[in-house]
Amino acid sequence: MNRPLNLESRRDFLKKSSLAAAALSFPFSALPESLKGVPMGVVVHSYGIRSGSKVESQKYPGFKDALDLMRHCHSIGAGGIQTTVGGWAEDFVKKVRDEREKLDMYLEGSIGMPKNPEDVARFEKEVLAAKEAGVSVLRTVCLSGRRYENFKSEAEWATFRENSMKSIQLAEPIARKHQVKLAIENHKDWKAIELAQIIQNLGSEWVGVTLDFGNNVSLLEEPMEVIRTLAPFAFSTHVKDMGVKPFEKGFLLSEVELGTGIVDLKEAVALCQKHNPNVTFSLEMITRDPLEIPCLEDSYWATFENPTAQDLAKILRMVRDQTYPNALPEVKNLDPEQRLAFEEENVVKCLSYSRKELLS
To answer: Residue 34: is its pLDDT beyond 80?
Structure first.
């Protein structure tokens, strides 16, 4: 479990590791029975504006907790939710479990990795609460920020990588003990090949991936390349489509309505289902201003080993050739009520697209 992360070229790694064969050996018995026909669910971050909102809105009241989120998502036709599980008291766990069973929705959790040995007790308590509520998959991340913003040097990145491995190694025995799947998201931190190697080197049936369909565009990786690399390890997903536009320091990146961006959603869904028939599909449509990806600035490249001009040229060519035809979504000029309305419109439109085109 303490084997070092030795990054190889993508081609060598895929050739040597036989990703598909390794993935097919992963047992999925702990996951729910076949989810075929289950509508797309919703990740809590799709409601980043409304969750905990203090805005006095009659039409879009803030969600106080997971129960509010679950009930609302059920009312708009979602098949389940993925939500944070921190701080769930015993009585609340029972309410969540009862509501989930009554509404017949799937429930996935989102949990913070143990930061050190002293934090393992907190982590285990949250795992147990989530399991009692009916969670079988817990999404987690190694980094809450973005690689190209958080780290200014190779040394800083190396420290993060070392600490991440320690956290994963603290978390794995707890996931294994309680037989709950831990799914590490590609969260604008790991390149796809890096995360795939971490999972493979760990060699645990209880640790896999939450496959985000769009995050790694920010690391200059094409969506389908990422999905093909990580789908064999996917326990859960963050479904999104991405729009791109050039700007002076690189390009702008934004979640957009499903079916309007650069992600081949049908192929992505098919690949995930091929490797794990029980995988859930959860919408993460984040309503916000576009992200700036400053890939033409020297500071962007501080943590990337052996970058090539070809990689940069490839992504900039994609930005040029597949520039989003309309203005990318923005919220900066909207008042609070308009932001809430825009967020709801985005989620509802994406779920509608999924019903018609992806998970019919």
So the answer is: no
